[in-house]
Amino acid sequence: MPYSDTAFDEQIEHFILSYKFRNYIDIGSGSGKYGKIIKRNLPNSYIIAVEGDASYIKKFKSRSIYDEVYHFKIEDFFEDKPDFITDIAIIGDCLEHLKKSDGEDLINYLIYRCHYILIVFPSKYVQYSWKGHSLEAHRSVWSKYDFLSFERRFYTKKFMNLVIIKGYI
Question: Among 3.30.1300.10, 3.30.870.10, 3.40.50.150, 3.20.20.70, what is the CATH number of 9-166?
Answer without folding.
Answer: 3.40.50.150
